[in-house]
Amino acid sequence: MGKYFGTDGFRGEANKGLTVEHAFKVGRFLGWYYGKDHQAQIVIGKDTRRSSYMFEYSLVAGLTASGADVYLLHVTTTPSVSYVVRTEGFDCGIMISASHNPFYDNGIKVINGDGEKLEDSVIDEIEKYLDGEMPEIPLAVGEKIGRTTDFSAGRNRYIGYLISIATRSFKHKKVGLDCSNGSASAIARNVFNALGAETYVINDEPNGVNINTGCGSTHIEGLQKFVKENGLDVGFAYDGDADRCLAVDENGNVVDGDAIMYICGKYMKENGTLVNNTIVTTVMSNFGLYKALEKAGIDYVQTKVGDKYVYENMSANGHCLGGEQSGHIIFSKHATTGDGILTSLKVMEVMLEKKQTLSKLASDLKVYPQVLKNVRVLDKAAAQDDEKVQEKVKKVAEALGETGRILLRQSGTEPVVRVMVEAPEHDICEKYVDQVIEVMRAQGHMQEK
């Protein structure tokens, strides 16, 4: 990760960590970089937070000033930008969103011409330009100045693409959608209505400041209650830019990303479509998922946290299903990034083809109790790599054996080491996490209050 760009773009509080000047300069660089030998064609989407309009205008100014033509999708989802880029021949795409963060944050996600997260080598060059470490980029003049075009038709084509993926009608199925007052508000209802579902939608009235506020995939309790009160067959909750999806079964129980991968992976194996018989997960997936996959005869691999790393592994090895516990699920046959609405369609496919409820499909997955504590430290690397800390981690791992696991992971954005233990009982998790933290404290790594 760089100084500005993390695993999911350049993110920060609007006009504090991420300013209009940053957005203008990112636009200036991208317009120049992709327009070295032709007039660059770049598409932009945004979520519903108030500052997204401000950043859209700043990016457009920078891009057109560098000679790029800009096409505006307006309010749309991150995966729709990825789809449009790779199917319409754009040089790159930009999504303005801070995903599941509060409304006062925002972000700039850049997608390359293949619809994938931008290469690190190009991000490094953007950061150099932001820090004034490269010559100033020339301004376009005369007829070389770029133009801006409404391209809402691209979003409509994406909606049509999603509808085409469904294998059956959703008629007589009562489906709840929590749109998080975000990007899904402009798309999800249309897709489910077109497929014949009885669609019940909540949190689809964005006002610029209510995105992710007590709703969506990060606050799924509202959807749980809604599904039960209305006797729905299933519910789906998206995050702000709709690249995540979590589900709720007919009893109001949460079906997270791990469970979705298990349900879809098992179904795909039965149909002979699970390429390489492998699911790509991150190190944060639950121990119970791995036990269930082993029982089902499905292989798995682990990557660092971040759907970027999941997709890199899938692309390099030809795997077709991967994702995160948080709900970023990638079906590489259909998309190059996590797609919340697509994920909900794939879950519906399994329910309809198997003629089973979501609770039944998830019943063989036993989620292990998990305790995760964030430890604020003076130096992340020093705390994690400390010899005595590692010795304690090794002892805990030996004690857990085949019944659980321990994981230490440095935060990408804070001076924090995350200590996680999964085991058959919550008290065991708590005990071992606290033991590791005590060693960190004894070794002088803690930021004491």
What would you note in describing this structure?
By secondary structure, the protein is α/β, with parallel strands linked by helices. Helices cover 39% and strands 20% of the residues. Strands 1-2-6-5-3-4-7 form a seven-stranded mixed β-sheet, sandwiched between helices. Helix 1 (20-33) packs parallel to helix 2 and helix 8 packs parallel to helix 9 (287-296). It is globular. The chain starts with a strand and ends in a 7-residue tail after the last helix.
In short:
The chain has 15 helices and 19 strands. With 449 residues, it is an alpha/beta fold. It has a seven-stranded mixed beta sheet with strand order 1-2-6-5-3-4-7, sandwiched between helices. It has a five-stranded mixed beta sheet with strand order 9-8-10-11-12, with helices on both faces.
Write out key terms for the chains shown:
449 residues; alpha/beta; seven-stranded mixed beta sheet; 15 helices; 19 strands; 20% strand
The beta-strand count equals 19
Proportion of β residues?
15-25%
Sequence stretches where pLDDT stays below 50 over 5 or more residues: none
- SSE-based structural type: alpha/beta
Q: What is the overall silhouette?
A: globular
Give the overall average pLDDT.
95
How much helical structure, as a percent, in the residues?
Answer: 25-40%
- Mind describing the biggest β-sheet? 7 strands, mixed
- Tally the helices: 15
State the separation between the terminal residues, measured CA to CA.
29 Å
* Biggest sheet strand line-up: 1-2-6-5-3-4-7
Radius of gyration: 23 Å
